Structures are given as structure tokens and as C-alpha cells.
Amino acid sequence: MKKIISSNIYLLGDASNSIDHILPWKLIEDIPKLFEDKNLAKIKNPAIKDVVINQENGPVVIDISATIEPYTILNGPVYIGSNVLIKSHSNISNSIIEDNCKIKGEVHSCIFQPFSNKAHGGFIGHSFIGSWVNLGAGTTTSNLKNNYSNVFVKWNGDLIDTKSIFFGAVIGEHVKTSIGTNLNTGTVIEMGSNVVSQSFPPRYIPSFSFYYKGKISKISFEDFKDTATIAMSRRNRDFSRDEHTFLDLYKKD
Description:
The chain has one domain: UDP N-Acetylglucosamine Acyltransferase, domain 1, CATH 2.160.10.10. Helices cover 11% and strands 32% of the residues.
């Protein structure tokens, strides 16, 4: 994998556009194109056993340090990065799973940024997941509307037509969802938010928000910091190195 866009977006191949012109739903749409490098080859991992690897529609690239538990199905194109854990009975297709993620369940046409967890069942489809996200057990995205119309997304204050009938969610860095969370098509949850809901939450949740019992309240920076510090320390990472960046973003929000 090559770092080609920013410190938090990693893709295969080359890109001529700036980050300002690259939208999450376009990244999802272009996943197959990111695997067109003729030199791309599956990295052989001797620890992989009882795993179905289907490369009919694209390559399956697995880092040598990744762990793929038995009875998993990988339908290419798929990239699985360093220190990733794919748990048993998972089904991954047309997706990019960056380093240090834990994944279980069904994942289709998604990009997971480093250090994010979907460690239990549930379907995540046509979605972009930022770093340090934790998706509670059963968290599921809808990626297709019942009337098959295009999915619209609230983006930078505007309602934008993705020009696709398939799109799930954009989930920002350090977002947490509770067990059984269901997300509607075109949901955007901005960074630092915590979603506790047994029904569909709003399709747009601003940064550093706590959604509970149908209401949105602001998370204090200290509470966000405490949670992020604990989460990152479990992976031997120090939140204090990023604290000022997040504090600046919190003040601007």
C-alpha cells in the first residue's frame, strides 16, 4: 500500500486529485480501480488455513502479519493490512482493511482506516470508516434504499447526490456505536461522537456529539479525551501526541 493522500487516507496506486476533490462515496466506487496495478500479487501467509480466497473479480492482498481465522470468505478485490485480525465466519468483499483493525461479520465495498474495530457480527456496506472507530455488536448499515433512488449525503452543510443507489455511511475518527445500532443510507457521523440507539439515529450527527434517546448533546472535550486516551493506550498509542489537533477541531466545531 502507498500513502498517497493524507496521514489518514491510504490507497493503492496513484492519485492525481487532491483530498478536497476526493469524496468517500467516490473512493468506495473506485475500489476495484485501486487494484489495477499489474505488479500486485497476493502475499502468501502460511498461517492462513480453511479460508476461501476468491480472486475471480480481483486480487486478494494479505499482509504477512495479518491473521485470518478459519471459515472466512475473501472475495477480491480485497486488501488486508498489517496486524489485521479477521475473525472466523466473516465475509469480506471489494474492501480495503487498513492496519491494526479487527473485523468480524459481513463487509462489502468498504474502506476501514487503521485501528478501527468491528469485532462482532453485523453488515457494513459501501461505507468509509475512520481510524479508532469502535462499532458495537450488531451495528449495521443500510446501503440501498427501498425505492432504489440515489443516496443523498449531508456534506459540508450541503445535501449532495452521490449519483449512486449504493452508499452506506461515513463514520469519522473516534466514533463509537452501541450494540444493535442501525444506520440508514447516507448517514454521516462526524468525529468523536458516541451513538447509543436501538432505532435509526439521524442521518447526520455533528462532531463530538452524544446521541441518546432521540436527543443530541455535546460531549465535553475532557470526556472525549479520557475515552480516546484509554482506547489508544490499549493499542500502545499515545493520545497526547494528537490532543492539540483534536482540541483545535473541537473549538472550531
